[in-house]
Design brief:
This protein is an alpha/beta fold. It has ten helices and 19 strands. The chain has helices at 118-127, 166-169, 174-187, 223-230, 244-256, 379-383, 390-398, 402-407, 418-422, 429-446, and strands at residues 2-5, 22-24, 30-33, 43-45, 52-53, 58-62, 65-71, 76-83, 89-96, 135-136, 152-155, 191-196, 212-215, 240-243, 262-268, 276-281, 298-302, 309-311, 323-328. The structure holds iron/sulfur cluster (2 copies).
């Protein structure tokens, strides 16, 4: 087993880590799929309101690759199809019925996987709607089904505050994980499994498959950082990755021939009453998962605190997300804020007295300032795990010089959000980089 230490990054001193206790949540009456939060896709609807559907019925496909389709996470009736500005499909809501009919898919016996044709597994993942759980670096779009990667990285654990703990979602599922590893071995010539160093007994059951243990501050466990540290040739830049819990879903589909809908979700953040893990459904309603503390105003972040999206009170879990974090919105004005020492105000810089406080703090969503020009403090450079100089890359993008931004390493950016978090000028650097990468990817694909 190899070890990897990532020195650059930053661990947010945030309270609210979910406990490892696992609740089973009641079956919801509705579930939903949220096309607007699946990056890159151009969805084309295949159903309309009022249609009766089964669990596993295709709801929409991606116009770029019509074979890539997204299936219903439940059986019942299409209750609503909601559109946003410019007719963007926001969500497809399914009212579940009692019986929940389910579609059947091709099954593969474990003993036959070694002899199974690679293309048969690709077709089965496309048919079963789980192909988009694979991601191709550097853009993180799902991979073109016609291509083969140099390697696949399986990422066990995500150190973004706060994501599902692999010790929780892998408990008792080592056989399913082993099945998934056999599938990946048919899809790529090499498979790497990265796990947090120091997980010890918690990941003992899957330790025979772990090839690398990784230590260091967030985002050390990101597959993009792993690739940045281990790649040997330019061809490696096309490596794919899959998250540990998603691999279990893919394995469940191929082994059982049923669309798997169970998700283990981390429920955390300082404004959550009971921080824990919970078994629920893919696309479950957020209000079925967490109770807020007495905070006046709370933001529901679906996914991690730095990379997730803001969900409504009546929102749903996304296709890719396995976490819900509740944070105080922090939208009240602070009386005489400029004379306060800031003992409980977390900050990367040493501006506040909180720099002397080694405890975790109940962070909120207040920016504590407004957008200003870059002050050349280099904070973004100090935290960037892939050694980009974010302030210079940002200036290249402002000048519309994509070639220069690429030369700075734009494509290595793992979209971790740290540079935006630490920037005292409140520049949303990560958003700029993510948008530029996506635009470049779209131009490359269209060319
Ligand atoms: S430039 Fe990219 S990788 Fe570097 S800190 Fe910013 S978001 Fe993270
Ligand atoms: S952290 Fe913000 S202000 Fe500081 S150098 Fe980077 S972009 Fe400029």
């Amino acid at each position: 087993m190899n070890t990897l230490h990532v020195s650059k990054g930053y661990d947010l001193p945030l309270t609210g880590r979910p406990g490892t206790d696992l609740d089973v949540l009641p079956r919801p009456s509705r579930v939903a799929l949220l096309p607007e939060h699946i990056p890159f896709i151009k969805p084309k609807l295949l159903v309309k309101e009022g249609d009766a559907i089964s669990c596993g019925t295709p709801l929409f496909h991606d116009k770029r690759h019509p074979r890539v389709r997204f299936l219903s996470p439940g059986g019942g009736i299409i209750d609503a199809i909601e559109f946003g500005p410019r007719r963007v499909i926001r969500r497809v809501v399914i009212r579940l019925d009692e019986t929940e009919a389910a579609e059947s898919f091709q099954r593969f016996e474990e003993g036959q996987l070694r002899q199974t044709d690679r293309s048969a597994l690709v077709e089965a993942l496309l048919d079963g709607g789980l192909w988009p759980l694979l991601h191709a670096l550097p853009f993180r779009d799902y991979p073109d089904p016609e291509t083969q990667p140099p390697a696949i990285i399986v990422s066990l654990g995500d150190d973004e505050p706060f994501q599902a703990d692999p010790a929780v979602y892998l408990a008792g599922r080592q056989d399913l994980f082993g099945y998934g590893m056999q599938v990946l071995a048919r899809l790529a010539p090499q498979v790497f499994v990265s796990a947090p160093a120091g997980a010890g007994d918690a990941l003992q059951a899957v330790s025979p498959w772990i090839t690398h243990t990784v230590s260091g501050p967030y985002p050390a466990l990101d597959p993009g950082v792993f690739l940045y540290r281990t790649r040997r040739s330019p061809a490696d830049n096309r490596t794919w990755f899959v998250r540990g819990q998603d691999l279990l879903l893919m394995a469940g589909l191929l082994r059982d021939g049923r669309y798997p809908t169970e998700r283990i979700v981390a429920i955390g953040g300082p404004a959550t009453q009971r921080r824990r893990h919970a078994i629920t459904r893919m696309g479950a309603p957020l209000k079925s998962m967490a109770e807020t503390t007495a905070e006046a105003s709370v933001r529901r972040v679906v996914g991690g605190v730095l990379r997730g999206f803001t969900g409504d009170a009546d929102g749903y879990l996304g296709f890719h997300e396995t976490a819900l974090n509740l944070l105080p919105a922090g939208d009240q004005r602070e009386f005489l804020a400029f004379v306060r020492p800031g003992t409980r105000k977390p900050s990367f810089s040493r501006t506040f007295l909180s720099a002397l406080n080694r405890h975790r703090l109940p962070m909120d969503c207040n920016l504590h300032g407004e957008l200003r020009p870059c002050v050349a403090c280099n904070a973004c450079m100090q935290v960037c795990p892939v050694e980009i100089m974010p302030q210079l890359t940002f200036k290249s993008l402002l000048a519309d010089d994509i070639e220069e931004a690429l030369a700075h390493g734009l494509l290595d950016c793992v979209e971790c959000g740290l540079c935006s978090y630490v920037c005292p000028a409140k520049i949303e650097l990560c958003d700029h980089f993510t948008r530029a990468k996506r635009r470049y990817h779209q131009e490359q694909t269209a060319a």
